[in-house]
Queue: 2 jobs
Job 1
Amino acid sequence: MHTVQDFNFKNQKALIRVDFNVPLNDNFEITDTNRIEAAKPTIVKILEDGGSAILMSHLGRPKGKQDQFSLRHIVSKTSEILGVRVKFVSDCIGAEAEDAAANLEPGEVLLLENLRFYAEEEKGDEAFTKKLSQLGDIYVNDAFGTAHRAHASTTIVAQFFPQKKCFGFLLAKEIESINKVFKDGEKPVTAILGGSKVSTKITIIENILDKVDHLIIGGGMTYTFVKANGGKIGDSICEDDKQELALDIIKKAAEKGVQIHLPVDVLGADAFSNDAHTQVFKVDEIPDGWQGLDAGPQTLSLFEEVILKSRTILWNGPVGVFEMETFAKGTISVGEAIGRATKAGAFSLVGGGDSVAAVKQFGLEPKVSYVSTGGGAMLEMLEGKTLPGVAAILE
Ligand code: AMP
């Protein structure tokens, strides 16, 4: 795998696809600078080598050129984070961009205007891509959040740099993390899948069954499995048309020697509300008028036991409605158990969905090995797909 580490950027202009699609408030101030900070190590390495950095990104979903989506809003904050004055050019292709790129000195950083001001970016248009490619000597992709898109700057541009293309540190880390789970993960490997629906996770489950020893299923998905097995789920969320699928998953898991762990008890509520009355029920004996909104105490000790004996852990999706405090305990407890396993030497990856939000909200981020930065991109990796942006560098 080629990363920026494999190149010396001295006197080279690196054309870097970053993900600076940051949230802005009404005053166009950045409310979360994580994505810029995440790209910093790659940029610093290039500058320290004696190279220069041409940064390209999208921001939001503009329809043509709209000033509210201009990357000029982020220039001063980016300069502050990188510790270098960032130059800005109000176009990403054309004479102005070419001049600015040509005049860039070693140690300097240039930020191009929003790529998506051109519809050609998302279309992966050849002529547009060629113009982008002419700005730099080496292409670096460090934008994991868009690596699942075959856009001009994320994928197509790589073909103009057959020998001079590589991953930035961030993208490389994402790929390494998923490989640590799926390819060279120390056994036992455990996946914890939660979230609301089976239907949105089915491709992930099918892919994962070939790679894990234990599969913990939690959250709203639980009830489709329980009902398929003949249990009483009261008013809990359920996809009736996915019951066959649930039984098929259980069968396939048995054939492949994967142990499935489903909740045995739940925290039930008499309404989908933080202020609802709550009661613990056996998972298959939930009365009508009640719905399971979090994992119960016995379930949590069972899950903890499995997590603590795992050497590799993947977590995708909360095990309860963690947005409501009353039903957040299960998700926190799973996160804490993963934290303890990690402290004891396991590798843990949290990625691709609301578990990332949960981990951040509950301050669990420092306790796990890696929290993925790309929602959709990580989901596609979990589904076993090769991301076009990744393939373009590896080809
Ligand atoms: P997903 O986007 O599929 O990962 O689903 C995440 C959502 O699942 C979160 O918003 C949770 O509130 C929701 N969820 C988790 N457990 C339950 C449950 N038992 N009933 C309803 N929704 C749930």
Job 2
Amino acid sequence: MNVGIDKLGFYTPAYYLDLVDLARARNEDPQKYLVGIGQAQQAVIPQSQDAVTMAANAASPILDATNRKQISLIIFGTESGVDNSKSGAIYLQNLLGLPRSARAFEIKQACYGATAGIQMAKEFVKNHPDQQALVVGTDVARYGLQTAGEVTQGSGAVAMTISANPRTLALSANSSVYSDDIMDFWRPLNRTEALVDGHYSNDIYQQFFLKTVHAYCEQYQCSLTDLQALTFHLPYTKLGLKALRTLLPEVSAAQQTQWLSEFEASRVYNRQVGNLYTGSLYLSLLSLLDQSEGLSAGAKVGLFSYGSGAQGEFFVGTVQPGFRDEQRRSRIEAALAQRTRLDVDQYEEWFTQWPTFNTANVTIDPAPDGAEFVFTGVVDNKRQYQRRPENAD
Ligand code: HMG
């Protein structure tokens, strides 16, 4: 029996910053951002969104009457959670009307959280093939105004249902993992912006990639020639390309061309959104599934997950016959195309206003936000969420 990703949903806020505008404001050559970093735009989160609402907005379109009843495990992967105790998964369960009998919790290991959730969900479904799991990766990537990391910010969520006989991607039984205590990126409890040793983090990422991909091939008799494409955690798309290039000398010229072409498909969405932290690898997978012209059922895709701190994991997925979903692709392309472009002054104002964690009472007007799920404020230290059925698909 195959187990893997049955359906994928994606949500990103309806506002973005064009990185040519940011480059001009920061006295940088736009080509550094567009080519050197590999990003064209970055999502900007309004006050009416957070990790919970983005997760709900990503998951809502992939739920139907059948899978809704089967979901008995809800895993909320995030490193920008909204409460130090209560998990985002409980809010999500309630907002989406999922079964009360489900086990629901939050999981954190930097950008690796969603992968930990998927692996756990895979084992769960193997033992309970009549049931499904909902796994989300949802985050707001914030480094601070005028920092080196600013160009790599972003926000959004990817939601996945994990099932037996999945329609999209069957997951390998095995994976290769590597972890070590590394201070490359972290966020102390009193801070809303991450601290990072940027160039060191790039080096560790690439080291972990080579370690895990080689270990996977050695341990599980997988040849690199078996892989039609490689997908990466993409904090910014150039880093995936740099990691991919380190592996190119190990394959033929034809395979190099193929991998590079599939990589372009796998970064179409990420280039427009920025870092999603936990959801980033899965947004890249979604981009590959939607944008690749060469992918077909049976193709094997390598997935490299990386979470600072640090944890790396390499595993393989086999593309399933139902992987193309024209409705999903049109929905994502339309959502990205219809976003409102903010100028740098507006972005800086919104950046400074968000988030509102340290307030006992605040009211937020969600009216300008067209999303189905919105954050409306805090009452007596309790966060308030709303579903607006008129905005549902
Ligand atoms: P920087 O120092 O501003 O940039 O920081 P740079 O000087 O290294 O330049 C970047 C690239 O642009 C270089 O290319 C330049 O040559 C090129 P590379 O050598 O890398 O191939 N460049 C140009 N290209 C074309 N035209 C030009 C031009 N000028 C320069 N005119 C850095 C870059 C990524 C370090 C910074 O943005 C940063 O700190 N970002 C945040 C940290 C990060 O994203 N790390 C990634 C690995 S860690 C990770 O993935 C985990 C994470 O997602 C968190 C988690 O797990 O939770 C971050």
